From TrEMBL:
Organism, scientific name: Candidatus Thiodiazotropha taylori
The keyword Signal is annotated on this UniProt entry: yes
Keyword flag Signal: yes
Residue ranges of the TM segments: none
Name under which the protein is recorded: Cytochrome c-552/4 domain-containing protein
GO molecular function terms listed in the Swiss-Prot or TrEMBL record: oxidoreductase activity
Record's keyword terms, sorted: Signal
Domain Cytochrome c-552/4: 247-305
InterPro entries: Cyt_c-552/4, Multihaem_cyt_sf, Multiheme_Cytochr_ET
Length: 798
């Protein structure tokens, strides 16, 4: 009988159906630990290849272990878990053949310690290149994501030893069903074809993705022993392609076409390439494009210690494009900043099309993106599903210490796309909204597929909170309905209101001070006392746009006192819905005054809507809300600004004459409202422009917006966002209809949140375009009404 050598025997046993680019050749892999091995860890004299794992005699009796020649570690492991994983048994200890892998890769046992070698029991084979005690070396650091010394803390490693079945696929919603997909199955004799993602008794183990014996036919390629592609090799599609797709997509379908069209997967968008050093650090091929790196841009199945959800470099430890992070605490933003940063800090070669988000978050005022910024001091953000839903408790409801901002509060990186519309088909020139004549409040592609809320109102009164909120989640697909009542997010404000309403915090609706979040509760946010404010306001309450209040009239339920309901209606910036008040109606049909606004807000006045990010974001040039550089310049979005409240320009008691760069005048024409231009009419007038009239009559030729308009101009109980010191009410902690005495030029009224440097008193609200002097003055006639009151109170205000 002819005898077969041990190495040849095991190579024959290991052979089988492999991908065209895979071959069973352990001799030319790092798993050849013999003296002939090609890796840095190898024996000093032992020539046997298979002995480090297998033996034909004296093997351990372990189920699923092929003649195993090593002891198993007695270590206790900390398994991977998260609030968004649906597997029911991830908290169990690793089992099956995964324990075999961990006998080397957890670093608790010497690699050369085997049961039998050369006829000797409990042998210790001498190796070079090992760590202390002969264990697996740390590589770039045991706590980094660039080591294969995985350790016993598996919280930063892909879960293993859990049941992968139809029930799990159904619960997750973005996993392929093993009962339908033939490439995922428990291996059994006689199977043809064999599953390329083999399970062990319906459980996913290390060997489901890895085969420790294989290499690429090109010996220079590092395939990490993966059974399937390490990178995306061809155009992604709806169904899994063994030839084209990255191994991750064998199980994770990510809603098929949604991932295919996403900005991170579409080759027409994600065509930026990696710099050499970051690619080398990640063991990526030189010049690899983002779409080819695919899932591995953001995720690593064995990532840095401290990261959550397998986010690549997702910790707050020191690191960068050329330096691996070593441990640290979870920091989602670090993963995003690999690419979304300045050119010097990016892992990618220079591109104008990747927004530099990181630099916005270091501006004077910014969302609390880091754990250091946030009240809790740790990353509280915790999604519960593939839609990135989050329990309101984690937003601050019931515990303001949980308030935070993270990239995935607003963006779903698996679904967002470069398109001006969230329901667009594929990619176009930009992922931000169309800032032209067709301006609307429809969410853009970068907001696709995330979560938001729609307020449900029971009253039109400014003083009443919404009754409830409807959660928006999911993705309706290309061409999906863009109605606000749709099940998915269709509006930017729906995302903002998750945190900026009582959906995300408690609100007892008491004013001037209640139990709402306080200014300055997070580092980098606006400090208390700015514009007299100490607390945030409920923006779902403010932005309400009751149908009966659209257009002009006297609906009678605005929240103003009974004596001030005539010709009065609620007013709002058209974030949730349009005002219904066009340029002709605002001037009594005498002249269309749409030109009082700057483009694009001079188009479709009254029917046009707008975004929160038209006002909130990094600073812009005077007369425009468009970020510097346009579509490929500074990013849209309320990430950070050098102006308070993350505004695109200043908004303060000084806003008005002499401040054309301030916020109001990025939409409202400065010359008309604060520059004394009498060549056009305005809604505040009677065939003329009374803003200019006041400019001329007030000492110093000046007007200030807050003398007459509310200090938080989201929405209000009176028309035109006008304050009325004849009717100060519950919004200031006073009974409805309270008159505040203003008798001299030096006097102003300050009461948070809505009155700051306020002067205006309205006796009778006029129709827009028909204002007269006797509409203004003290209700008590103290000191006066009309022009006499203006002369006494407004001739030379502070």
């Amino acid at each position: 009988m002819r005898r077969v050598s041990l190495p040849v025997c095991f190579l024959l046993c290991a052979s089988g159906d492999l991908n065209a680019e895979r071959m069973s050749d352990i001799r030319n892999t790092k798993h050849n630990l013999s003296i002939s091995g090609p890796g840095p860890v190898r024996a000093t004299s032992e020539s046997e290849v298979c002995v480090f794992c297998h033996t034909p005699h004296g093997a351990l009796d372990i189920p699923a272990a092929p003649l195993w020649n090593r002891a198993l570690s007695g270590a206790t492991y900390t398994p991977y878990t998260s609030t968004s994983i649906d597997a029911q048994d991830t908290t169990a200890e690793p089992g099956g053949s995964s324990k075999l892998c961990l006998s080397c890769h957890d670093g608790t046992l010497a690699i050369g310690a085997v049961n039998v070698a050369n006829g000797q029991a409990n042998a210790s084979i001498s190796l070079q290149g090992t760590a202390a005690g002969g264990t697996i070396p740390e590589g770039s650091g045991a706590l980094s994501g660039f080591t294969r010394r995985i350790g016993v803390d598996l919280t930063n490693d892909h879960p293993i030893s859990f049941t992968y079945d139809s029930a799990l696929a159904l619960a997750d919603g973005e996993l392929r069903d093993p009962s339908i997909e033939s490439h995922i199955a428990t291996r059994a004799s006689g199977q043809n074809p064999k599953p390329v993602v083999p399970l062990e008794s319906d459980r996913l183990e290390c060997v489901s993705c890895h085969d420790p014996h294989i290499r690429d036919t090109d010996i220079s390629k590092n395939i990490k022993f993966l059974r399937l592609n390490r990178f995306q090799e061809g155009l992604p599609g709806n169904s899994f392609s063994e030839i084209n797709d990255i191994v991750c997509l064998a199980c994770h379908d990510k809603l098929g076409q949604r991932w295919v069209d996403s900005a991170h997967a579409d080759p027409a968008v994600a065509d930026e390439t990696y710099k050499t050093i970051p690619a080398d650090l990640r063991e990526f091929p030189a010049g690899i494009a983002v779409w080819q790196a695919s899932c591995l841009n953001c995720h690593d199945t064995h990532t840095v210690q401290g990261s959550r959800r397998l986010l690549r470099e997702g910790s707050d430890a020191l690191g960068g494009p050329t330096q691996a992070r070593l441990g640290g605490a979870a920091a989602i933003e670090s993963t995003c900043y690999q690419c979304h940063t300045n050119d010097a800090s990016s892992v990618l070669n220079f591109s104008l099309e990747v927004p530099n988000i990181e630099d916005d978050f270091v501006l004077a005022r910014h969302m609390p993106i880091t754990s250091l910024d946030q009240p809790a001091g740790v990353e509280v953000h915790d999604i519960s599903d593939a839609d990135f839903s989050e329990d309101p408790l984690f937003l601050g409801k019931g515990d303001l210490n949980n308030r935070h901002a993270e990239c995935t509060d607003c963006h779903n990186p698996h679904r967002l796309q470069r398109n001006t519309l969230f329901n667009g088909n594929g990619s176009n020139l930009t992922g931000t909204h169309d800032h032209g004549a067709s301006h609307s409040n429809i969410a853009s592609g970068v907001l696709r597929g995330t979560t938001g809320v729609e307020p449900v109102y029971g009253s039109a009164s400014f003083h009443d909170l919404p009754l409830s909120y409807t959660l928006k989640r999911g993705d309706g697909g290309d061409g999906a309905s863009n109605l606000a009542i749709s099940p998915w997010v269709t509006r930017e404000y729906q995302i903002c209101l998750k945190c900026h309403s009582d959906y995300g915090y408690d609100d007892n609706n008491l004013y001037p001070v209640g139990d709402r979040p306080v200014l300055g509760d997070s580092i980098g946010t606006t400090t208390p006392g700015t514009n007299g404010l100490t607390q945030y306001t409920n923006q779902a309450r403010e932005f309400q746009a009751p149908v009966a209040h659209q257009g002009f009239g006297s609906p009678g339920d605005s929240g103003a006192d009974f004596d001030y309901l005539s010709n009065n209606q609620r007013s709002w910036h058209p974030v949730i819905a349009a005002t219904g008040r066009d340029g002709l109606q605002r001037n009594q049909g005498d002249e269309d005054i749409s030109s009082n606004w700057v483009p694009p807000f001079d188009s479709a006045v009254g029917s046009q809507t707008m975004y929160c990010s038209d006002c909130h974001g990094s600073g812009t040039a005077p007369g425009t809300v468009v970020p510097d550089g346009g579509a490929n310049g500074r990013p849209w979005g309320p990430h950070g600004s050098n102006h308070n409240f993350i505004l695109k320009g200043d908004w303060s008691a000084d806003t008005g004459t002499g401040r054309p760069q301030d916020l109001c005048f990025k939409c409202h024409d400065y010359d008309v409202y604060a520059g004394g231009d009498r060549s056009v009419d305005s809604g505040f007038g009677r065939g003329d422009n009374l803003h200019a009239e006041h400019f001329e009559r007030i000492t110093g030729n000046r007007v200030k917006c807050m003398w007459c308009h509310v200090a938080v101009p989201h929405g209000w109980k009176n028309k035109g966002l006008l304050v009325n010191l004849n009717d100060v009410g519950p919004e200031a902690g006073l009974p409805p209809g309270t008159e505040v005495p203003i008798q001299t030029n030096a006097e102003v009224y300050n009461q948070e949140p809505y009155y700051f440097n306020a002067k205006l008193k309205v006796i009778n609200f006029a129709q827009s375009g028909d204002w007269r002097p006797d509409n203004c003055g003290s209700a008590s006639s103290n000191p006066d009404v009309g022009r006499d009151w203006m002369g006494a109170v407004c001739q030379n205000p502070p």
